[in-house]
């Protein structure tokens, strides 16, 4: 973690706001970023400071709501953890967020706000190394600023992974095909997350965090579209061994294998089918990202750029694959009905169903 300069005055806002909103690791990182930006762009530093206050206010709004497990009543109707779980496991797949409790919606809003907050900090800090918007010659990127950008990007990724985990659990609740015991465990986990804004994906779904952390460091080569190189890269990026084992087991279904291909190549099964047909018709044995982009008619988004991860690209990859899975369910077309992450988390929820202490 980047260390603060010894001459940096501690938090520019009220200390209680800082302590309330951020953990010590985040606070140190944000202070270092403000100090770095202040040196080259005081206006940007003031903007960032204002964003801190906005995020603190949003967090306070979330905390002002009663805990979701706390019994209450409205319109002569008792409400408690059991009634909330019953509501969640019967969610209509098309009802969206309007069917969620207010605190759940505010909690998700806070998390999205934090993601935007970290993106702004990363953009302003990175600009100090290239002179963007400063009106002066680009500064020499120091090792400390480079490390600071790396740490900000990692913190941003952690928040995005947390949002992805929430969306995965919600997707399971909204699918009629999800078994009741899986929905029950997913609902219990979501309530715990919505009730505690300090929880991050590493606290409740470390295997998912490991899978996304590793995938964000894999550069798909495409080649013969077998996925061997990408799978090896995933394992070498310190992906949890259980993830690799799950997607290489002998009894793996065809849909699970296809979903894992989507995960490795950052494409839908339909797109991979188009590429394989084009390889056959054009007598091409190995392909490049540029060739694939030409065939598909869209830009191929890489998740790794010279070891500088792009967590937003991973989020877009998940959304693309999730939409494709939902479309297959609605249209009855062949292909995986879940993302690779969903197949993995269902397996973990099955294991955790008999042990509420087991992380997913």
At a glance:
This protein is mainly alpha-helical.
Task: Give the secondary structure arrangement, pairings included.
Elements: H1 15-21, H2 24-40, H3 42-63, E1 72-74, E2 77-79, H4 81-88, H5 102-130, H6 143-174, H7 180-195, H8 201-204, H9 206-215, H10 228-236, H11 241-246, H12 254-265, H13 269-281, H14 289-296, E3 304-305, E4 308-309, H15 311-331, H16 340-352
Antiparallel strand pairs: 1-2, 3-4
User: Which sequence of strands runs across the widest sheet?
Assistant: 1-2
Shape annotation? globular
Query: Biggest sheet, open or closed, and with what strands and sense?
Result: 2 strands, antiparallel
Q: What is the assembly state of the chains in this entry?
A: single chain
In terms of DSSP E residues, the strand content is under 5%
N-to-C CA distance: 27 Å
Query: What is the averaged pLDDT score?
Result: 88
Number of strands: 4
Number of continuous helical runs:
16
- Poorly predicted regions are 1-11, 132-140
> Structural class of the helices, strands and pairings?
mainly alpha
Helix content range of the residues, please?
55-70%
Rg over CA atoms, rounded to whole Å, is 22 Å
Task: Provide the succession of SSEs.
Answer: HHHEEHHHHHHHHHHHEEHH
């Amino acid at each position: 973690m980047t260390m603060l300069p010894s001459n940096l005055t501690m938090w520019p806002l009220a200390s209680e706001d800082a302590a309330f909103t951020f953990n010590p690791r985040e606070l140190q990182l944000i202070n270092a970023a403000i100090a770095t930006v202040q040196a080259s762009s005081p206006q940007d530093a003031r903007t960032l400071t204002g964003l801190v206050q906005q995020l603190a206010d949003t967090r306070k709004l979330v905390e002002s709501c009663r805990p979701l497990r706390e019994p209450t009543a409205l319109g002569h109707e008792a409400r408690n953890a059991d009634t909330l779980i019953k509501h969640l496991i019967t969610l209509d797949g098309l009802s969206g967020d309007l069917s969620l409790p207010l605190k759940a919606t505010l909690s998700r809003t806070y998390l999205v706000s934090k993601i935007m907050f970290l993106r702004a900090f990363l953009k302003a800090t990175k600009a100090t190394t290239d002179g963007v918007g400063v009106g002066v010659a680009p500064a020499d990127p120091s090792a400390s600023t480079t490390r600071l950008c790396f740490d900000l990007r990692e913190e941003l990724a952690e928040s995005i992974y947390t949002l992805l985990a929430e969306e995965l659990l919600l997707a399971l609740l909204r699918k009629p095909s999800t078994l009741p015991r899986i929905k029950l465990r997913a609902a219990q986990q979501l309530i715990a997350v919505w009730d505690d804004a300090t929880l991050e994906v590493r606290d409740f779904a470390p295997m998912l965090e490991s899978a996304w952390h590793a995938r964000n460091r894999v550069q798909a080569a495409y080649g013969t579209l077998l996925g061997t190189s990408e799978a090896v890269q995933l394992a070498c990026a310190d992906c949890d061994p259980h993830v690799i084992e799950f997607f290489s087991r002998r009894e793996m279904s065809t849909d699970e294998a296809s979903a894992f291909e989507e995960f490795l190549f950052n494409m839908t099964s339909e797109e991979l089918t188009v590429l394989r047909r084009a390889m056959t018709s054009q007598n091409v044995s190995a392909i490049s990202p540029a060739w694939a982009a030409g065939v598909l008619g869209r830009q191929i988004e890489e998740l790794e750029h010279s070891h500088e991860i792009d967590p937003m690209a991973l989020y877009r990859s998940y959304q693309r694959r999730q939409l494709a899975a939902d479309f297959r369910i609605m249209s009855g077309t062949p292909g995986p009905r879940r993302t690779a992450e969903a197949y993995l988390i269902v397996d973990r929820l099955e294991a955790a169903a008999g042990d509420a202490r087991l992380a997913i």
